[in-house]
Fold this sequence. Notes:
Blueprint lengths: L3 E5 L4 H12 L3 E6 L14 E3 L5 H11 L3 E4 L6 H6 L1 H22 L3 E7 L22 H20 L2 E7 L1 E3 L17 H10 L5 E4 L11 E2 L1 E3 H16 L5 E5 L5 E2 H12 L5 E4 L8 E2 L4 H7 L7 H14 L5
Parallel strand pairs: 1-2, 1-4, 2-3, 4-5, 5-6, 6-11, 7-10, 8-13, 9-14
Antiparallel strand pairs: 9-12
Bound molecules: uridine-5'-diphosphate (UDP).
Amino acid sequence: MSGAVLVTGGAGYIGSHACKALKAAGYLPVTCDDLSTGWADAVKFGPLEEGALEDRAWLDAVFDRWRPVAVMHFAALSDVGQSVREPGLYWRRNIAGAVNLLEAMVRAGCRHLVFSSTCAVYGEQDGVLLDENAPRRPINAYGASKAAIEDMIGHFAATHGLEAVTFRYFNVAGADPEAEIGEFHRPETHLVPLVLDAISGRRETLTIFGTDYDTPDGTCIRDYVHVVDLIEAHLAGLGWLRAGRGGAVFNLGSGRGYSVREVIEAAEKVTGEKVPVIEGDRRPGDCTRLVSGSRRAARELDWRPRRSLEDMIADAWRWHQRGDYRR
Length: 327
Ligand code: UDP
């Protein structure tokens, strides 16, 4: 056993996949989750400590109980549209949770953090592949709250010697190929599960948010990465920290963008079913195009996404068809 790793948000979509991979790598994943958006039955690979990061006394007790060698911090509100409607919620919850977590790490002498950031820190840029040096100009409170946490980490690194690998994710999709865990949000706002809901009849239609963007087919372009590929990078990031290589920031994406219409076409191809589509208005807070340059992760972490958009949809579809995960 290589030690305990605290996984905040381990009951959520990406965090639960991290727990599975950590366990397979010989760590004990200890999930810290208040179950506000996560699910207790997604915690299958280690213990659940139920509580909110805002509760500092609880957090300190968790650190004392498990003495983790590192933390993976996934817990956050992450719905772009909601962050536009309720910015205060994002600043309060995402930031307060992170402050407490970093302070608790310092108190416990736990120096290694893998932090889940987002391409939303970049905001609108001009049609380029975004590398890690692109300026951060978030256009929604979700991206802004993650950018603020990145800055917070910088101050804790300078003062307290905290070392963090920060990953800026592009669009994460897919599911565990064994369909033990997968993506389930309530309400669901993400494109791939919504497309599958429309195919399976759980939802009548899929609304395309905006067809007048300045892109070849008028719909937004995103860079999709399979959750299993993404988590492989997290394990590499943990290894990087434990090897004493210090703090770093990496984009995680494929370098290839797909429009909303292309995602729909891929889902039709994989499932053999038609997606009933409505063309709707733009969704406030959406950027036109977010595509990653992930050369740094390839070079430094030897990480490359190996799974295609079709793989993501096929794995998500297998999970989707299980059905019993709908709590
Ligand atoms: N999208 C859409 N219809 C939906 C949900 C999403 O057209 O019902 C679009 C959305 O505008 C964006 C892309 O799909 O361009 C990916 O959105 P998602 O919410 O999955 O991820 P985000 O990019 O916001 O993190």
